[in-house]
């Protein structure tokens, strides 16, 4: 296998480790110098899809199996069930992995998936988040493909404390990849809009996203609206909880990534997510259509 497009992680310590237990995935890389077993199981992976819930990832795995014409009987198997943290399905060259709510749970599985594709010697793997979000001035049900990710300070960067220091990293997604993905939404007649826009990503669903309906709130409705308006003026059209971390970590790891989310609520009209579970289910599948077309094209070329 050519090593030219393998993942080279930005951590020389990994080279000094003879084994690596990907603890939350419950995958043991027993010999990091000879990863034949891992390569056999995961070496063909081209795309890693991630989303908050295990159920959505199961639905996505089933959808992609049909869409990509991949054979398989019964329900896809959760490869990481024994880890009791995340669900991971494999359909042909695609992994579908859950990540929980927010950057902290998402970063844990992302670190381990990045190491997995490195050990498996996957060729130029692409990481895609397929999620839900709040919308900003767009109709609920709109799909937003993220360009630049902004944090809760409305800065286009990811901020993280490391060794007691404030570390700030860039947080943008791969421009050409985003163009490629968004066109599978804009060029189709799906009955909903797909747009490319900036995303605000926060560590808190309530106060962090300027909601007034959390357990505590120390600002007025006017202050909230002013904040949301400022976000809107920065080209932000959706709000979720993983984009800055995902953009910055994948940039550091040198892999291409994208974030494709459907809006559940227009935050300029209110805070509560009031759509029914059936509507939510239908909305959640909208990014599947776009990502499915993108992956099909990728695999056929
Ligand atoms: O992918 P999902 O729908 O889980 O992502 C959004 C952002 C947060 O993780 C969560 C908040 O409800 O939903
Ligand atoms: O408003 C919303 C809806 C979904 N996810 C979020 O993070 N915010």
UniProtKB/TrEMBL annotation:
CDD domains: UP_hUPP-like (cd17763). One of its GO terms (cellular component) is cytosol. Residues 46-284 form the Nucleoside phosphorylase domain. Phosphate binds at residues 85, 129-132. SUPFAM superfamilies: Purine and uridine phosphorylases (SSF53167). It comes from the Eukaryota. One of its GO terms (biological process) is uridine catabolic process. One of its GO terms (molecular function) is uridine phosphorylase activity. Substrate binds at residues 209, 211. NCBIfam families: euk_UDPppase (TIGR01719). Belongs to the PNP/UDP phosphorylase family. This is GH19395. It comes from Drosophila grimshawi. The gene is Dgri\GH19395.
């Amino acid at each position: 296998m050519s090593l030219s497009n393998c993942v080279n992680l930005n951590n020389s310590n990994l080279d000094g480790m003879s084994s690596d237990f990907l603890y939350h995935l419950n995958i043991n890389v027993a010999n990091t110098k000879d990863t034949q077993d891992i390569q056999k199981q995961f070496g063909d992976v081209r795309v890693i899809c991630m989303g908050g819930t295990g159920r959505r990832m199961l639905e996505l795995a089933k959808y992609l199996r049909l869409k990509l014409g991949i054979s398989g009987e019964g329900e896809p198997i959760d490869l990481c069930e024994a880890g009791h943290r995340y669900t991971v399905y494999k359909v042909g060259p695609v992994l579908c992995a859950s990540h929980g709510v927010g950057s902290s749970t998402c970063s844990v599985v992302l670190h381990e998936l990045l190491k997995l594709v490195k050990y498996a010697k996957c060729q130029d793997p692409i990481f895609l988040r397929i999620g839900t979000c709040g919308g900003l001035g767009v109709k609920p049900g709109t799909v937003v493909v993220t360009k630049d990710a902004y944090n809760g300070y409305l800065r286009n960067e990811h901020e993280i404390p490391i060794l007691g220091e404030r570390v700030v990293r860039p947080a943008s997604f791969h421009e050409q990849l985003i163009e490629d993905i968004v066109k599978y939404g804009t060029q189709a007649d799906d009955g909903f809009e797909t747009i490319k826009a900036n995303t605000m990503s926060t560590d808190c669903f309530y106060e962090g996203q300027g909601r007034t309906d959390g357990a505590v709130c120390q600002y007025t409705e006017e202050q909230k609206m002013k904040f949301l308006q400022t976000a809107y003026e920065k080209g932000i059209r959706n709000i979720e909880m993983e984009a800055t971390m995902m953009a910055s970590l994948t940039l550091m790891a040198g892999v291409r990534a994208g974030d494709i989310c459907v809006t559940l609520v227009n935050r300029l009209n209110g805070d509560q997510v009031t759509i029914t579970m059936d509507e939510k289910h239908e909305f959640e599948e909208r990014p599947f259509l776009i990502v499915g077309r993108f992956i099909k094209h990728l695999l056929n070329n």
